[in-house]
Please model this.
Amino acid sequence: MRQIGSVTTMFRGEQPSRIGTQAGERGLATPDASQVAAWLSKQAPSDMDKAAVSRASSHGVALTVRYESRYPNGPNGEYLPSYDVAVGCEVVGGNVEAALADLRNFLTPAPIREIEGWLAELSVVVAKRVDEEFSEALRLKAYASRLTRYPADVARSVLLKQTYKFFPTWDELEKRCEAMTGPRRHMIAALERGPEPPEPVRRPATEEERARVKALVDEMFPMRSPEMRAAAVDEALKGNCMVGEPNA
Model:
């Protein structure tokens, strides 16, 4: 098996249109993207999330994905297993453009024919819902087309590494795909936004600034006692409350 770095490095510098599918040709991958998809499909989604963070780190970019726990209930109110979902990502420093180009490779979908093969394999190992053969063929075609929205590793994992009693509905598949793809999507969205601007440097108020605030408080609240006005000034100017250079 090729190492993560060797595969993604092959495609560093490619334009986004060359990675994944061409516009209007969902699932019809270019040769380069086919190699990426073939490699992704042999990996576990959780490993690819870690690999994406590692690739960004190789460009000096630190990515931190934020997760929240979910505690779902079943149709009869029973508790279902909890799970975590990605809700955001923080990005710090480095060559953001290079990291973004690399991480987009981690969203490469599988060719539609490959997905159709995975769906066919799933259909013979789970119980089928009663349906006409024609309707089933239409459903599989629709599923395959929609699964090209997701990375190859996610599509294969959801179809062949998950457990189903009956052939899953699209709602079931979509929820699992969205949850698995979430971390990488948040990473890419964070890279597209770029690093957050640094927090401003704060400092204590100068005596001149304190005098101006005191004069303002005295003017606005003349009916309050001197002690109350002094306490209000102290509270407003507590700690490092000012931004920028004095008298700026």
Summary: The CA atoms of residues 62 and 92 lie 5 Å apart. The two ends are 60 Å apart (CA to CA). Residues 202-243 form one domain.
